[in-house]
Amino acid sequence: MKPFLPLIFLILLSIALLFSNIWGQPVYILDEAKNASCAREMFDRGDFIVPTLNEDIRTDKPPLHYFFMMLSYKLFGINEFSARFFSSFFGVLTVLLTYALAKRFFKGTVAMGSALVLLSSLHFNLQFHFAVPDPYLIFFITIALCAFFIALEEHRPNVFYVFYAALALGVLCKGPVAIALPGLIALLYLIFSKQLTFEKLKIMRIPSGALLFLLIAVPWFVLVGQATENQWLESFFFKHNVSRFNKTMEGHGGPFYITPLFALIGLLPFSIFAPQAFYVALKKDYKTQPLILFSLLVVGVFIAFFSISQTKLPNYIVPMYPFFAIILAYFIYEQDVLNMRRYKLWISFGVYFVVTLLIPIAAYVALPLEKALQSLQHLAFYFGLLPVGGLLAIYFFRKRDLTKANLSIAISFMLTSLCFFYIIFPRIYQENPVIISLPKMDTSQPIAYYKRLNPSFAFYLRRPIPKLHSVDEVKTYIAENPKGYLITERKRYKDISDLHEFEIITERKDTFERPVTMVLKWK
Known about the structure:
two-stranded antiparallel ribbon, five-stranded mixed sheet, single chain, D-Maltodextrin-Binding Protein, domain 2, 6% strand, 23 helices, mainly alpha
C-alpha cells in the first residue's frame, strides 16, 4: 500500500484545490458566461452540431467543451457546478499526467515536486475553475506530448496512436493550434535529439495515425459547415485563428516580452527559480536526461510562438506549464547534490519575499478602484498568508533546510488559493450587475436588450433574450409589450431615454470591465 500513498495524497490534494468552490462562484466572467450559455442552448435543443449564443451562431470555438458541459448538465442539472465540473476534472488529470511522466524518467521527489509546482500556482488553479475550452486544450496537449515522448523514448509505436487521437481532440477543443504547436515540438525534438531518421518516422505510424486524426477531428467540421452553409467555418478559421495571430483582437496585445512575463507570473511561486533552473537544464546531458530537452523545447516553442502573435493572453501559454513545472522541480529537488551558493538562491528567496509583500499591498490599493468593491478592501488581508510563507521560507533556507523552505512557499500559496476561491473571488463577483439585478426583476415578464447584453444574463435567465438593434425596434417592442424590462448600457441609454418613462432598476459598472449595465423597467 505504501507505494500508492503519494499518489493518493496527490489525487486528494488536486481535488481539494482544483474543485474548490466551483459551485459557489457566479458564472459571470464574459468568456465563461458565453461558453456556459452556448452549451446550455445546445443542451436544450439536443443539438450537437451548431453552437449558438442567445440563438445567434457562435463561431469562437469548436464544440468539445460544449459536449462535456452538456453531459454535466445532464448529470447535475444546469448550474455553476455542472458548467465547471469537467474543467476541474481535466485539471486533476493534467496534474496526474505530469506526475506520471516525471516519475517515469526521474526519481519520485522530482515527480511530486512537478505536481506541487502546478498546484501551488494560482494561475494554474484559475484555468481549471472556468467553464471555457482552455482546460480541455491543456489536458489534450499534455497527453499528446506525453504520449509522443513515451512512444519515442520507450520504443512503443502503438502509443503514437494516443498522440494522434489527443491532437484530434485538441483540435475539437480550440482548433489548429492544437496540432500546429505539438507538431512543431515533435519535429524539433526529433532534430535536436538526432532521431529524425527514416526508421524513426516509420515507427511513428504516420499514415494510420493521420487517418485516425482525420476520423476524429474532421466529421464535426463537415457537419457544421453543411448546417451553416460554411458560415461557421469561414468565421472560425479566418477571424478566430488567422486574425488572432496577425492582428490584436479585443485589446489583447502587448510587446513581445509580455509572454515570458506571463509565464513567470503564472507559475509563481516557484518560477522565482526559473533563471537557475534553465541554466541547469541547458547544461544537462540530454542523452541521459531526454525529458529535460523535450521540456525545454515545449516551453521555448510556446513562448516564441505567442511572443510573435499579435493577440496575447496569459491563458495561451498554459499548456506548457506541466513541462515548465518539470524543469523547475528538477532543479529544486536536485539541490541536495548541487552547490547552493553557486546558484545564488538567496537572491531568489529575497525577490520572492518582496513579491509576496507587494501582492497584498497591490490588492489593497486595487480593490477600491472599482467603486462597487470599495467595501471589500479588507479582502486584501487574506493575501497576507504569502509574506508569512516567504518569511518562513527565508528562515528555513538560512537553516539550509530547502525541503521545509519549499514547503513553506507551496503551502502558503495553496492556502491563499483556497481563500481566494472560497472567500475573495465569490465575494467580489457577487457585486456584478447581473447577480445584483436578477433578484429585483420579475423574470416571467418580457425581457429584451438594446445593443449590448452581458452573456451572464443568458445563462441565468435560460431563455432567448431578443436583441433590439435600433431605437425604432425599442419603440415597437415597448408598444407590443405593456410591461417588461430592457437591458442596455449607460452610453446607449441616451438614445432611448425619451421613448418612455423608464424606471432604472439597476445601474452598475460591470466588474473589472468598462461598460455600465443598466436594467430598465417600463409599464
